[in-house]
Amino acid sequence: MKIEEGVSRLSFFSSLYEEAKERLSGIGEALERHEMQYRGDDRIDGSAERASAVRNITYEIVESQVSSDIPQPKVTAAKYSEERERLAHAIERLCVSVRDELPFEEMNDLDERFTYVYGGSVWLVEWEEDERGRGGVRVECISPRDFFPQPELCRIEDMEYCFFRFDTTREEICRRYGISPEVAREAEREGSSEGIGETVTVVVCYYRGEDGEICRFAFSGDAVLEDAVGYFRRRIGDRHADAERVSRPVPLTSGDEIRPVTAYLREDGSVGRVPTVLPYYEIREFPIVIRRNTAAERRLLGQSDCGFIRPQQQAINKVESRILQKLMRGSVTPIVPEDAQISVNNSVFGQVIRLRPGESAAQYGKVDTTPDISRDVLEAERLYDQAKRIVGISDTYQGMDTNVGNISGVARQLQVSQTAGRLESKRRMKNAAYAKLDRLIFLYYLSYADEARDLSYLDAWGREQNVSFNRYDFYRFDPARGVWCVDDRFLFSADLGQGAQVGREALWERNLANLRAGTLGDPTDPGTLLRYWQQQERAHYPFARDQVEYFRGFTKGKEVERDERQIAPFDDLRVEPENDDGVDRPEQAS
Predict the structure, then answer these.
(1) pLDDT score at 7
(2) How far apart are CA 100 and CA 105, in angstroms?
(3) 82 within some domain
(4) Residue 291: φ, ψ to 5°
(5) Residue 583: what pLDDT?
(6) Which of 18, 185, 288, 386 is most enclosed, with most CB atoms within 10 A?
């Protein structure tokens, strides 16, 4: 993106932000309308009159789809080798470890509702360092109402710029951006800038420089908070650094090392030696992930469920208002003789009528003006069924099936499966978004994690193992060019076998079936039962941990013979030397 000459950078980005807001105002209004509908808005489209009764079927349908399952990472090497396969497993464990440290359960809960209500959600992934200088990834799930992409483009990869907006305090921007209180006083919230303790609106712009590198500019009011050209490039002091020169051996996870001088074989068979210079990895894409509800043509976000069922929500509000009006106007009016010596009120059994001599009870009666609302109720239920069918939700899926006793368990499970099949595309969109998140997490650690990160995992025997993620493991020497490069050729997806796509009850039943079928070994052997309960523990079966400890007691003290390469090939993540091009590694050549 080229910045106009003769214009201050603050003025340029401020005007660009205002232009983006103006051109996207229609989308913002639609998102606000979807949110109000989800919250039970009583406004009627095209009418100044409001509904007197709201049956919030939108909330019910949205909440029926909310899932607490978080897709588990799966990483494969784009070009297979034993070393790359081991590194792929190291990346998986890194992503799992980072997710465990971050509040992904809370963010997933927010993400689910954003997606169904707005049609999508926005994730921002950033790298930050603590006071001890140790870096880590920070992930945020942001409302689409606070995200302003470049207008008329529907892919993040095609954009030259985009904006985020969030509210914070002046004290926080002083701490986060390292500005003085005097500069912070120029920050303001849209419409107000009073008081040092008041909240302010911060606008952050990610944009591409003229050479395609990612840059960031942050401002609030007239205060410039950050102006980072080459945002992802390494900085040493006040200058950028493109590479590091190795002055001492760098240890690798395999036990090997990168030496200060790299020796290699030339094409003529002679040995060449060059100083080891390792280029810093630079991310060349926006750290933004869009999760769509269902894909839509020429839209950045997906299609909102609120938009599809809005006609039914509006109609059902009118019907429910009519039902309420009928019931409020209806009554039971008593009929008494003109000279009756009683008073009548609306209390129940509050009066006793004593007939006078010669009087007949037939002289007393009532006029019932209670309306018939049965047709209105049927119409409301019909509209509700329409809305559910549009989204693809059945009563069985919601746990509200009234015909449970009339169908078999197999038929009921089939109904649930059919409903889940209609919602499959939404799950695929969620898997795709989480795969992109995992890829950004990996790229950040590949760029900035100078220290090896300690990780742990459970091996095939249920034992906790300690490993580490080392970004230097991904450096490769190219003998044709005589330079080092970074191997980032890994494919990211969701592991469909980790329970994200299958209900826990189904996993429990499947594990039990495997035990009975003997696929885990002899069902009467304590070792087999230990293996079975370890699988149930991973599927979160209640009290499975207690059973694991119980059956582990039977196997303690026994010698377990196993092949390290077949049962737990990734326990120590030792990287063997590889050779993709037939040339020996530098250490061997020297």
Answers:
(1) 83
(2) 9
(3) no
(4) -100, 125
(5) 39
(6) 288
Token duo for residue 540: 């979160």
Q: Do the Cβ atoms of 108 and 99 come closer than 8 Å? A: no
pTM listed for this prediction: 0.80
Residue 227 lies in a domain: no
DSSP 7: S
The domain tally of the chain equals 2
Note the pLDDT tens digit of each residue in 181-217.
Answer: 999 999 988 765 454 457 899 999 999 998 899 999 9
* Tens-place pLDDT, residues 502-527: 567 778 888 999 999 999 999 988 88
The domain containing residue 377 runs over which residues?
306-336+364-424
**Each residue's pLDDT tens digit, 253-279:** 988 999 999 998 888 888 889 999 999
**77 and 489 in contact (C-beta within 8 Å)?**
yes
C-beta pairs of 74-79 under 8 Å, 24+ apart in sequence: 74/492, 74/493, 74/494, 74/495, 75/438, 75/442, 75/490, 75/491, 75/492, 75/493, 76/490, 76/491, 76/493, 77/489, 77/490, 77/491, 78/489, 78/490, 78/491, 79/489, 79/580
Q: Is residue 507 part of a domain?
A: yes
530 domain residue, yes or no = yes
Q: Which tokens sit at 495? A: 């592991």
Domain termination site, one of 424, 449, 468: 424
CA distances from 131 to 176, 183, 451 (A): 12, 23, 16
H, E, C per residue of 436-468: HHHHHHHHHHHHHCCCCEEEEEECCCCCEEEEE
